[in-house]
Amino acid sequence: MNSTNRHILVLCTGNSARSQMAEGWFRHLGGGTVTVASAGTAPRPAVHPLAIEAMREVGIDISAHWPKLVQDVMDTPYDYVMTVCDHARDTCPVLPGTHQSLHWGFDDPAADETDSAMLTFRRIRDQIADTIRTWLATGQSPTH
To answer: Tell me, what's the pLDDT at 87?
Structure first.
């Protein structure tokens, strides 16, 4: 893809895990070529602590992020609106302006309440990173 600044909105339901990790990866990998925000259709009260920890493990700090309602970020024009869960894709309000919509469906790591939940967060973190790397480099979305 070209290196012009792209305005990206990443959406999921709770804006507490997948979309927050994607926002962190876009900021980290975008090299100044992206402006990114994330939001949710029904935001949780806080970013999931395991999402914060999983990102910290790869040197990305999202501890200052907070969940936002999609209506609170609708006044910004976006080039791309990316949904990272099926529910957000199906329930997202129509956003004003002209943008390209992309859907990258990732499993919800917060749904794993077992002792191996951290492994799930790491797996989703890495899938998100691979998807964003590929998209930034080629404009194509890999299958995962």
So the answer is: 72
Mean pLDDT of 25-45: 93
Buried b (16+ CB within 10 A) or exposed e, 33-60: ebbbbbbbbebbeebbebbbebbeeeeb
**Checking DSSP bridges between strand 100-103 and strand 80-83, what pairing results, if any?**
parallel
In the annotation, is 61 catalytic? no
Active site residue 12: yes
- Residue 132 tokens read as 């964003």
Could you tell me which of 124, 95, 96, 132 has the C-alpha nearest to residue 16? 124
Q: Which of 36, 70, 85, 128 is catalytic?
A: 85
Q: Which pair of structure tokens corresponds to residue 127?
A: 């899938």
Q: Which of 62, 92, 124, 132 is catalytic?
A: 92
**Of 8, 9, 10, 12, catalytic:** 12
Name all domains of the chain by residue range, CATH numbers in brackets. 6-138 (3.40.50.2300)
| Residue 24 a catalytic site member | no
- For residue range 49-60, list pLDDT tens digits in order: 999 999 999 999
- Phi then psi dihedrals of residue 52, to 5 deg: -60, -45
